[in-house]
Amino acid sequence: MELTLAQGIVKSAALLGAGLCMGMGALGPGIGEGFVAGKACEGIARSPENASLITRTMLVGQAVSESTGIYSLVIALLLIFST
Amino acid sequence: MMISTEHIQIAAYLGAGLCVGIGAITTGIGSGMIAGEGAYGIVKQPKANEQLFRTMLIGQAAAQTAGIFALVISMLLIYGIDMTIGGWFKASAYLSAGLAMGLGSIGPSLGAGYAGSQACKSVARMPKQGNAIMGNMLIGQALAQTSAIFALVVAFLLIYSVPNQPDGISTGHIIVKSLALIGAGLAIGLGTLGPGTGIGFVAGKATDSMGRFPAQKPTILRTMFLGAAVSESTAIYSLVVSFLLIFAL
């Protein structure tokens, strides 16, 4: 790999950006999904007859929270491989 | 770009300090949350004091795990490496290992602390369910610490499996590789923060609910595992991105 200094700085900024992007992007979904699951545990304990309904809502809610984590993954992979 | 031994020493010592410094923040907060609920539980339920004391100590020990990982990495960065060779690649890998483990222990410790504090609260409310509550607390704390183990693995890889800087490569290449290594540490360090905290919240709520409604134990456990597994996914994305940044470039 032969790089000029300027190309090296651009590429390195992209890679550092990829790391920061995935790192910070994982922060929110992780906390959010955990909050959903915690409340679902509490809800299922209180009204076990609605367990399947609560589990379904939990999974849909987590899938929506997960989306920003996946956006970060996509951007991180783009920054690594297509710059 | 010339590099001397001092540059590598600066990076390694800075990494070691940041690692245990950042790692101690929430390890302390988490253990304190557990002790607070443990002490307050004795006010509410003086007869259960031995059980509360035991739950508090075991919970605190589990919450300290990530802090101990940070201490190990910090010791390795001070005493366990050869700082005379390696060039910029090794210097940035050492700094990055410290950042990875330091930031990586924030979330799991906070999560384990929340789970432990809920367990103490729950034992004070239902001392008869003490063993079931403590068992669930330990499972939940172990789930929360998984992401700290990801950070530990990345820190070990950064310390021991990054190659020395070869002679005669261009400055551009050196900058790319060095910043890719720092990016890998930041990705896993920040990336474990959310999942660790989130899984700890799940574990805390599940432990609390189990104390209130012991008959629902199987359903609560199932929901806890399912929810924790989904929360863990972003930590796994971060692990993949850090492996790519370490090995694919």
Characterize the structure shown.
The complex is a heterodimer of chains A (83) and B (249). Chain A is mainly alpha-helical and 83 residues long. Chain A is built from 2 helices and no strands. Helix content of chain A is 88%, strand content 0%. In chain A, α1 packs antiparallel against α2 (51-81). In chain A, 47% of the residues are buried. The model of chain A has no long low-confidence stretch (mean pLDDT 90). With 249 residues, chain B is an all-alpha fold. Chain B has helices at 5-44, 49-79, 87-104, 106-125, 130-160, 171-191, 193-212, 217-247. The longest helix of chain B has 40 residues, at 5-44. In chain B, 61% of the residues are buried. Chains A and B meet through α1 and α2 of A and α6, α7 and α8 of B.
Number of helices of chain A: 2
What is the residue-mean pLDDT of chain B, rounded to a whole number? 92
Largest inter-chain contact set: A-B, 57 and 65 residues
Q: What percent of residues of chain B are in strands? A: under 5%
What fraction strand of chain A? Answer: under 5%
Element string of chain B (H = helix, E = strand):
HHHHHHHH
Helical fraction of chain A equals over 70%
Q: Would you kindly provide a brief summary of this structure?
A:
The complex is a heterodimer of chains A (83) and B (249). Chain A is an all-alpha fold.
Task: Label this structure with key terms.
heterodimer; A: 83 residues; mainly alpha; 88% helix; rod-shaped; B: 249 residues; 8 helices
Topology diagram in text:
The complex is a heterodimer of chains A (83) and B (249).
Chain A: H1 5-46, H2 51-81
Chain B: H1 5-44, H2 49-79, H3 87-104, H4 106-125, H5 130-160, H6 171-191, H7 193-212, H8 217-247
Helix pairs in contact in B: 1-2, 1-3, 1-4, 2-3, 2-4, 2-5, 3-5, 3-6, 4-5, 4-7, 5-6, 5-7, 5-8, 6-8, 7-8
